[in-house]
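stuck on this chain:
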Amino acid sequence: MNTTRLRFPSNKVRDIERCLRSELSSHYPEGEALSMMALLFEGFLGWDTTQRLLHRDDTINQSDLLRFHWAVEDLLHDRPIQHIVGYTWFCDCKIGVDPSVLIPRPETEEMVLQTIQQLQATPPHTILDLCTGSGCIAIALAKAFPQADVTAIDLSSEALQKAQENAEANHVAIRFFQDDLLSPTLPLERYDLIVSNPPYIPLSESASMDKNVTAHEPHMALFVPDDDPLCFYQAIGQLAVSRLERHGWLVLETHETLAEETRQLLLSMGFSATLHKDFRDRNRKIVAQFSQKND
């Protein structure tokens, strides 16, 4: 790796800012570059935007300057900013991330916030999060509904370790279990809310995806076989048929091009299901309940 490209003119904060903006904007859109710069100052120095402005005429030590240097080198080689600082924010929860877990996306955060708002009047008593990964969904729901009994499942032992660490850091109690959703073995209870952001990207799409995703995030959390792209939704639907309370809710993130096909699958299993668009106007969420005829 070439480590000679970046040269800070000084260790003064305003010069570091200027250099970061210039270097990162050569590789990322301006808005994304500014967000990365802000997160580096927060992650390395603990400064929010206001604090950074107040310190613009200050200098930082050589050790911290080197951290900024290596961070920019990594970012220019497509390493995710969240891996560099070690965390991201999700529904006001600080979620630790590493290559063992999927980095939480804004679309997932939107889905969870909408679910919390929808259920405020009738809070769920029991919640199940399938394919929990970093635990971000389960943790956000546990914080929003502190009286709820929350269970989370994932196949990856490394992901579950990170999820447990995140739950402890956010001071919520969640029961984590390792199991294969496609061949489940755990005896489960009944739930008022089942939620999941499962793998749903056909493997053939990997070639067109950003390198910072395909090279640094777990493929088992992203991809499904081209010949069976709805395999996880089939498994989730089958589980929900027996484990979801009659007036409970099933909330799923889905692939925009497979959203209607996924909805039709749930309809065939006895659910009423509706598609919801995300902030980019794409069909990315399904909300389902058992249909009236099955009540």
Q: What stands out?
A: The first strand starts at residue 87 and ends at 90. The chain has a mean pLDDT of 94. The radius of gyration is 21 Å.
